[in-house]
Specification:
Order of helices and strands: EEEHEEEEHHEHEHEHEHEHEHEHE
Bound molecules: NADP nicotinamide-adenine-dinucleotide phosphate
Helix content: 25-40%
CATH superfamily of the largest domain: Medium-chain alcohol dehydrogenases, catalytic domain
Radius of gyration: 20 Å
Number of strands: 15
CATH class of the largest domain: Alpha Beta
Largest sheet: 7 strands, mixed
Distance between the termini: 10 Å
CATH architecture of the largest domain: Alpha-Beta Complex
Oligomer: single chain
């Protein structure tokens, strides 16, 4: 099969579009013919060498978010047939024992992630545990399905399991055009919350309104804290859901209401953050909460919510652009340039 892999760390030139052996399933696995793979920030962070997940090795095939059709089923797999349309949970927590990918399910240690440390979807085919496939209903395209796993699960886990967002609350979400935030805005609206969204351009702010944000601000030109206070009548927001990290951390902290929570799941702009006033933190009873990895049992219910949301028109799978697999370098550059809203897809 054709795959896009790299043997060394570096710029786009390290990506090689080449032939590799087809994967062979274990008894509890299936091999998926990949129809679409969504890019994630991790793809470029690891290729550039800016960050590597524990267990990352070279050569590496990236691509965490895979949708396609079942091509080959393992000997012990009864629930899937060739031709079934599936989307895949890329986190190897909760994998059945007869899968080749079993034994890497420690959420806080040895956690296998397809496309993170295991071979992923930048390829014509991908080996996945049968237990981690979910049926794609007819009304959802495989391209729409590929936009889902990592970012919707990350956003859902952060907003609800970690942050406990409630219907009558206000939440501020940064980088509105990023995969995680496109999901977060829609999930927060679905839950009945009021959403304040910020982004790096006016055009992205406008798009955020289209997917449900109640209030939007350009965070490069606007005063984030002043705006959050104005919009909430001087109260502040109940929650900030942030994955931008360094760049917007102080503004986020000072935008919180009394008892507010800053829920963080990423560090796109940097890993260091300064608390300018511990007094402000403790006096107002603020919480800073890291959002740990989502759990395997979160995929099914959230996938059902997403599919129902697409059917009713309440939710959208926001696809920014699609590239042939051979043009993965151009797709990754678009991500590095932050020149996108929603998900960038590769089509093997
Ligand atoms: N904890 C987890 O389980 C988990 C899972 C998935 C992802 N993540 C993390 O979540 C983050 C987002 O992932 P993603 O795939 O959604 O990323 P993404 O789509 O690539 O979006 C990242 C966005 O961050 C914003 N940004 C970058 N530098 C900035 C700066 N200096 N100031 C303000 N905004 C800045 C940009 O938005 P603008 O264009 O608006 O400036 C950019 O589009 C990443 O850090 C990723 O590692 C964590």
């Amino acid at each position: 099969m054709k795959a896009m892999l790299y043997h060394r760390i570096g710029g786009p030139e390290v990506l090689e579009y080449t032939d590799v052996p087809d994967p062979v399933p274990g008894p509890g696995d299936v091999v998926v013919d990949v129809a679409a793979t969504a890019l994630n920030r991790l793809d470029v962070l690891q290729r550039n060498g800016w960050y590597h997940m524990d267990g990352f090795t070279l050569p590496h095939i990236a691509g965490m978010d895979i949708a396609g059709t079942v091509a080959v089923v393992g000997a012990a797999v009864a629930e899937w047939q060739p031709g079934d349309r599936v989307v895949v949970d890329p986190s190897m927590a909760g994998v059945r024992d007869d899968s080749k990918l079993a034994g890497m399910g420690d959420l806080y240690g040895d956690l296998g992630i397809l496309g993170g440390i295991l071979d992923g979807g930048y390829a014509e085919r991908c080996l996945v545990p049968a237990s981690h496939c979910y049926q794609v209903p007819d009304h959802v395209s495989l391209e729409e399905a590929a936009t889902f796993p990592t970012v919707w699960l990350t956003a859902g886990h952060a907003l609800f399991a970690t942050g406990g967002l409630a219907a009558d609350e206000t939440v501020m979400i940064h980088a509105a055009g990023s995969g995680v935030s496109v999901a977060g805005i829609q999930l927060a609206k679905h839950a009945g919350a009021t959403v304040l969204a910020t982004a790096g351009t006016d055009a992205k702010c406008e798009r955020a309104t289209e997917i449900g944000a109640d209030h939007v601000l350009n965070n490069r030109t606007g005063d984030v804290t002043g705006w959050a206070m104005e919009v909430t009548g001087g109260r502040g927001v109940d929650m900030v859901f942030d994955h931008v990290g360094t760049a917007l951390f102080p503004q986020s902290l000072f935008s919180l209401a009394i008892g507010g929570r800053l829920v963080n799941c990423g560090n796109a702009s940097g890993d260091e953050a300064t608390i300018a006033s511990l007094g402000h933190l403790f006096h107002n009873g603020l919480s800073i909460i890291g959002s740990d990895p989502y759990r395997p049992d979160e995929m099914g219910p959230l996938w059902d919510t997403f599919c129902a949301g697409l059917a009713s028109g309440e939710m959208r799978a926001v696809i920014d652009s699609q590239y042939p697999l051979a043009e993965a370098a151009a797709a990754q550059q678009k991500m590095l340039d932050s020149d996108f809203f929603g998900k960038i897809l590769l089509r093997p």
